[in-house]
């Protein structure tokens, strides 16, 4: 079984994709499904490939973004709307050209079933802040039918590896307060609450 923990050992291989300013191999792993989820039964082995995104992934990425946006509108309708059709695809093309951003995808038999969109960020230039950088997870999703198979954690491992190779000090993201499942996922992957965002309407 190949895991992302073995990533460094695989770097000498020839099956690689350019991933921002580092090179990450395209590799596969196997996971024993624990229950019937509409795609795989417990007797099946799920083979997932983790790789960097390509322009031709845009159509599927946009569909996954649509799932994310529905959740965002559900949790915070005061701040979020559904993007116009094709808007996310244009943004996807732009971020692929940005050296400080990256998209990692998970695919099953050539079908993209999840992705993580990350960006490299530095702290504000304020004297009391340590000069640190972080990998910020802008968006992350796994298709609902493929959840609870460890795919999100594999994507997270790739995000952390990307951060290490870019000398980032930590990984950061935000979670909607009512998204309890999302918070549990991040906590299982080593995250903890370090600061709360608060706001008030202008009334």
Structural key phrases:
single chain, 203 residues, alpha+beta, Aminopeptidase, six-stranded mixed beta sheet, two-stranded antiparallel sheet, 5 helices, 8 strands, 28% helix
Task: Describe what is shown at a glance.
With 203 residues, the protein is of the alpha+beta class.
The overall pLDDT average reads 83
CATH architecture grouping: 3-Layer(aba) Sandwich
Low-confidence runs of at least 5 consecutive residues: 1-26, 30-37, 41-45
Oligomer: single chain
Task: Report on this structure.
The protein is α+β, with helices and mostly antiparallel strands. The chain has a single domain, classed as Gcn5-related N-acetyltransferase (GNAT) (Aminopeptidase, 3-Layer(aba) Sandwich), CATH 3.40.630. The chain is built from five helices and eight strands, in the order H-E-E-E-E-H-H-E-E-E-H-E-H. The protein has helices spanning 7-10, 58-75, 87-96, 151-165, 180-188, and strands spanning 16-19, 22-25, 27-32, 45-52, 101-108, 111-122, 133-142, 170-172. It has a six-stranded mixed beta sheet. Strands 1-2 form a two-stranded antiparallel sheet. Strand 5 (101-108) and strand 6 form a beta hairpin. Helix 2 packs across helix 3. Mean pLDDT is 83; it is low at 1-26, 30-37 and 41-45.
Give the helix/strand layout.
Elements: H1 7-10, E1 16-19, E2 22-25, E3 27-32, E4 45-52, H2 58-75, H3 87-96, E5 101-108, E6 111-122, E7 133-142, H4 151-165, E8 170-172, H5 180-188
Parallel strand pairs: 7-8
Antiparallel strand pairs: 1-2, 3-4, 4-5, 5-6, 6-7
């Amino acid at each position: 079984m190949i895991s992302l923990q073995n990533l460094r050992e695989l770097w000498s291989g020839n099956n690689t994709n350019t991933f921002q300013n580092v090179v990450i191999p395209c590799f596969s792993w196997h996971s024993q499904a624990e229950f019937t989820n509409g795609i795989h039964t417990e007797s099946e082995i799920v083979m997932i490939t983790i790789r960097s995104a390509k322009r031709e992934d845009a159509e599927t990425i946009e569909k996954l973004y649509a799932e994310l946006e529905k959740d965002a509108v559900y949790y915070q309708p005061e701040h979020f709307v559904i993007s116009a059709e094709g808007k996310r695809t244009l943004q996807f093309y732009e971020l692929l050209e940005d050296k400080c951003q990256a998209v990692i995808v998970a695919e099953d038999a050539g079908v993209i079933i999840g992705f993580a969109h990350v960006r490299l960020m530095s702290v504000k230039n304020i004297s009391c802040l340590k000069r640190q950088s972080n990998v910020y997870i802008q968006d992350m999703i796994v298709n609902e039918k493929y959840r609870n198979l460890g795919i999100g954690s594999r994507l997270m491992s790739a995000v952390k590896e990307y951060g290490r190779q870019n000398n980032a000090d930590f990984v950061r993201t935000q979670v909607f307060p009512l998204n309890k499942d999302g918070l549990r996922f991040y906590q299982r992957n080593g995250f903890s609450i370090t600061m709360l965002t608060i706001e008030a309407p202008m009334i």
